[in-house]
TrEMBL record:
Protein name as it appears in the record: Histidine--tRNA ligase
Species this protein is from: Dongia sedimenti
Catalytic activity, reaction form: tRNA(His) + L-histidine + ATP = L-histidyl-tRNA(His) + AMP + diphosphate + H(+)
The UniProt record lists the keyword ATP-binding: yes
HAMAP family with a match to the protein in the record: His_tRNA_synth
Gene label: hisS
Record's subunit section: Homodimer.
Family (UniProt): Belongs to the class-II aminoacyl-tRNA synthetase family.
EC annotation from Swiss-Prot or TrEMBL: 6.1.1.21
Molecular-function annotations in GO: histidine-tRNA ligase activity
Length: 414
């Protein structure tokens, strides 16, 4: 039998990497909390229809990347490829529309069957926010500002670039769609098979194509912003004015689009060139048509998602583990006292590593291995005097401390 390995495109989060992951996720949660977003979670798997309705039968995610299976009850289930659809489903199934506006933060694993590479895994993790029930441009500004604050707090904002664009309203989208179809039809011979299939059903998705031939055609396509109506231009102007008022630098990228029908008005991405090909670290936009498309009440929405793994790569240093105290009982008699002492110290939020076996030399070797700064030694001599020996592992100094004063003495080593 061959040696067991993790499934391709997945990886273990061992302690050093887990601390980086946790730093990103917790920082995102705290930043979102400052803007009034409350944490929630949806199931890791949903009925497949949740994603087919929202992502569309012709999207790459649905046709090529979703992990879909039939469960024992005969239901078709999909591991979530993104977070927004589940939040929208929760709004509908939970009858939450009566409580609008709603501000949600989420964090957790997502799944896509993609070619693994640096910064892109088949099981990956995202944080994200969704603002539901707000139609005004200020909602877009607040959502982008939340993302900027999160990235500032992890030290990535000064190395990143915010790109924004507008998709306009439904009228503007229809105007542009007609012009785009005319242009793409004239270059049909150069399009990929997937894009030819999308030409009639949803030509805007061709603008998202990763095919190099498609991208060459799209490069000369009419620009979306040239076909905006007055209301759409005004909405975008107010978003830009809000960002400028907050001092949030941005670049307008007229080629930045979202191919899905329920997206409208603002779309945005934050990229960081030092990550290479997978450089997008946060992306989002307005999706006023999503909840209605899923069968719920017409509900405006705007949000973003951010890749935890990619953001973790941008941390300037790995967060340090909390420094443990090495508790060293010598002999059976000391074990019961050590267990009680360990419990008392842990209840005071000390990190305690309790040596399980071995002589004094091996246990002290263990203390050095875990980078403890102090060892608390309990042997027969100490127990007879109702004390413990505290040894400073940096200086080598040691002293006898009464068992009732151990916690106070250890404060200097937290």
């Amino acid at each position: 039998m061959s040696e067991l390995q993790p499934v391709r495109g997945t990886h273990d989060l061992l302690p050093d990497e887990m601390r980086r992951y946790r730093r990103v996720a917790e920082t995102a949660r705290r930043a979102a909390e400052c803007f009034g977003f409350q944490e929630m979670a949806t199931p890791i798997f949903e009925f497949s229809e949740v994603f087919k309705r929202t992502l569309g039968d012709t999207s790459d995610i649905v046709t090529k990347e979703m992990y879909t299976f039939t469960d024992r009850g005969g239901e078709t289930i999909t591991l979530r490829p993104e977070g927004t659809a589940g939040v929208a489903r929760a709004l509908i199934s939970g009858g939450l529309a009566q409580h609008l506006p709603l501000k949600y933060f989420y964090s957790g694993p997502m799944f896509r069957y993609e070619r693994p590479q640096k910064g892109r895994m088949r099981q990956f993790h995202q944080t994200g926010i969704e603002l539901l029930g707000i139609r005004e441009p200020l909602g877009d500004v607040e959502v982008i500002a939340t993302g900027a604050e999160f990235l500032r707090r992890i030290g990535a904002w000064d190395r990143a670039q915010l790109e924004i664009n507008t998709l306009g309203d439904t009228e503007s989208r229809q105007n542009y769609r007609g012009v785009l179809v005319d242009y793409l039809s004239g270059h049909k011979a150069r399009l990929s098979e997937d894009s030819i299939n999308r030409l009639e059903r949803n030509p805007l998705r061709i603008l998202d194509s990763k095919d190099k031939g498609d991208q060459a055609v799209v490069a000369d396509a009419p620009v979306y912003t040239d076909y905006l109506n007055a209301a759409s231009r005004d909405f975008f102007a107010r978003v830009k004015a809000g960002l400028e008022a907050l001092g949030i630098a941005y670049v307008v990228n007229p080629r930045l689009v979202r191919g899905l029908d329920y997206y409208c008005h603002t779309c945005f991405e934050v990229t960081c060139e030092e990550l290479g090909a997978q450089k997008t670290i946060l992306a989002g936009g307005r999706y006023d048509g999503l909840v209605g498309m899923m069968g719920g009440p017409e509900t405006p929405g705007v949000g973003w998602a951010s890749g935890i793994e990619r953001c973790a790569m941008l941390l300037r240093e790995t967060p340090e583990a909390r420094v443990p105290i090495a508790l060293v009982p010598l002999g059976e008699r000391a074990e019961a006292t050590a267990l009680r002492l360990a419990g008392e110290l842990r209840s005071l939020d000390f990190v305690v590593d309790l040596g399980f076996s071995g002589n004094m030399k091996s246990r002290m070797k263990r203390a050095n291995k875990i980078a403890a700064k102090v060892a608390v030694i309990l042997g027969d001599n100490e127990l007879d005097q109702n004390v413990a020996t505290l040894k400073n592992l940096s200086s080598g100094e040691q002293s006898a401390i009464g068992l009732d004063r151990i916690a106070d003495a250890l404060e200097a080593f937290r």
